[in-house]
Specification:
Elements (H helix, E strand, L loop, with lengths): L1 H22 L2 H15 L3 E7 L2 E8 L1 E3 L4 E2 L6 E2 L4 H14 L9 H4 L10 H5 L8 H8 L8 H11 L15 H15 L3 H10 L8 E2 L16 E4 L4 E4 L20 E3 L1 H12 L6 H7 L4 E2 L7 E2 L4 E5 L2 E10 L2 E8 L4 E7 L5 H13 L23 E6 L8 E9 L2 E5 L6 E5 L4 E4 L5 E7 L5 E8 L2 E7 L2
Antiparallel strand pairs: 1-2, 1-15, 3-4, 5-9, 6-9, 7-8, 10-11, 11-12, 12-13, 13-14, 14-15, 16-17, 16-23, 17-18, 18-19, 19-20, 20-21, 21-22, 22-23
Helix pairs in contact: 3-8, 3-9, 6-7
């Protein structure tokens, strides 16, 4: 009995210590985020909670760079692919009502499509092999109009592009699958996707700043809307993303299901709590959504529930989705063991994913390095022992995956060669620590023994320190 009591006390004290550390170090959050703002140009809103209690929430920068209007806690951002969680929820609500089954096929709802044996289950888990409908819209649709889901389905039926693989036998991330799911929601419910989301998800959860937002947007139509901005290398300034004539902000903007939902950090915390407390679904269905339903059998190895990534790292078990849209980057992640949730929404394409994880590192007081100004040393260190292939954290989706890169010696200078894009120089700030010359908050640190032999290698990205493995 005493042993059990001591064990429970120690577990409880660990959770308490994590909470107290975070609550007593709000200035630490501030210092980190101010560094990200001052040194690396972060612009956006952040929120950190534990057990549903907000322990840090702040806005940094502009809702509109042109007018210099400031962000605030109610500023509204595009969520990008975080929207897939909501589309999945819409389907699961219909299943709980007995209106749909996981085994129902796509052709049950759209018999004009040429794809047999693709199921709802496969669409929800990126295992359908469905071809990319956006490519068809870009190629065949008039760019001076705004396409709809019906247009996408019509083009799939007419052009009949083949599946990427036999349904259920592989995994490939698919926005088109979620476009089709949102159209299935419309067909079964008899409501528009926008109205269904509002009535069955947003309003019941009190998500008053969240909506499906197809087509052109403005702060006049949507009070609190934070415009997305992209840095122009030629102009040396931030410009409105919707002025760059991207397909996503013009002719593709009417297609919903994979994106096109706008929200706030506070509303996304309400959403996170609904997932935690199965506020909308039965317990069994909610658990299924947040459990591994499919895993990629080949590299890169990722796991999906229904419309959400699941997995485990050195902070514990996690569920998350990140999102991108021209001018925006977003991340919503919860580490389920300690119930730590971070929401980071940026309207200048800052690395919200890494920043969100760094905020978790502050909460648990683990694997965190405060950003600082890096200065190159004049003496060139011996770099030959660092040359080789490593598994480095990937900076593009899928997040939380390591990818092989090579550190190479170019005329006595150390470079990262990724095989995708130009090589990046690593500038030495000591004999064992190098920083990226591209201006991003990334460093490589080598740990050596007293004889100078390499023991460990670390990647530090946006304050988050992770060991990377040398693979040759």
């Amino acid at each position: 009995m005493n042993k059990i009591f001591i064990l429970l006390l120690s577990v409880g004290c660990f959770g308490l210590s994590v909470t107290l550390y975070a609550q007593n170090n709000s200035s630490f959050f501030d210092k980190y985020m101010q560094k990200q703002t001052d040194l690396y140009g972060f612009n956006g809103n952040v929120l950190v909670s534990q057990n549903g209690n907000v322990i840090y929430k702040k806005s940094f920068g502009y809702a509109d760079y042109n007018t210099k209007s400031k962000l605030d806690s109610n500023s509204i951002f595009d969520c990008g692919s975080i929207a897939k969680e909501f589309t999945a929820m819409g389907i699961l609500l219909l299943r709980d009502k007995g209106l749909i089954n996981y085994t129902d096929t796509l052709r049950k709802f759209f018999p004009e499509l040429p794809y047999t044996n693709i199921t709802i289950q496969q669409l929800l888990t990126h295992t359908s092999g469905i071809p990319d409908g956006f490519d068809l819209v870009s190629k065949f649709f008039e760019h001076n109009k705004i396409a709809s889901n019906d247009d996408l389905i019509r083009l799939l039926a007419r052009e009949k592009p083949p599946v990427f693989f036999k349904p259920g036998e592989n995994m490939m991330y698919s926005g088109t699958a979620f476009n089709l799911l949102s159209s299935i929601i419309e067909k079964i419910s008899g409501q528009s996707y926008n109205a269904y989301m509002d009535e069955h998800i947003f309003k019941p959860l009190g998500m008053t700043h969240t909506q499906v937002a197809n087509g052109p947007r403005s702060a006049k139509k949507i009070p609190g809307y934070a415009y997305g901005f992209i840095y122009s290398d030629s102009l040396k300034n931030y410009v409105r993303a919707d002025s760059m004539h991207s397909g996503w902000t013009s002719y593709l903007a009417g297609i919903h299901g994979e994106g096109m939902i706008i929200s706030t950090t506070g509303d996304l915390l309400k959403w996170d709590r609904a997932l935690k407390n199965h506020s909308l679904l039965t317990l069994a269905t909610q658990q299924a959504m947040l459990s591994t339903q499919a895993e990629k059998k080949t590299f890169p190895f990722v796991h999906f529930g229904y419309g959400i990534r699941v997995g485990k790292n050195n902070f514990g078990n996690y569920i998350f989705h990140n999102g991108s849209y021209p001018g925006y980057e977003g991340m919503l992640i919860r580490y389920t063991d300690n119930d730590i949730t971070t929401v980071v929404l940026s309207n200048n394409e800052s690395h919200s994913d890494f920043i969100a994880d760094a905020l978790v590192a502050i909460v648990v007081n683990k694997n965190f390095v405060m950003p600082y100004v890096h200065k190159e040393i004049s003496v060139k260190p011996d770099i030959e022992k660092y040359v080789g292939k490593y598994m480095l954290p990937l900076l593009r989706p899928p997040y939380m995956v390591s990818f092989p890169v090579e550190l190479v010696n170019k005329n006595g200078l150390l470079y990262i060669h990724s095989g995708a894009g130009k090589d990046t120089e690593l500038k030495p700030e000591s004999s064992t620590k190098f920083y990226y010359a591209d201006g991003s908050d990334q460093q490589i640190e080598f740990e050596t023994d007293k004889d100078g032999k390499l023991i460990k290698t670390w990647h530090i990205g946006w304050g988050l320190k992770k060991e990377i493995k040398k693979i040759n």
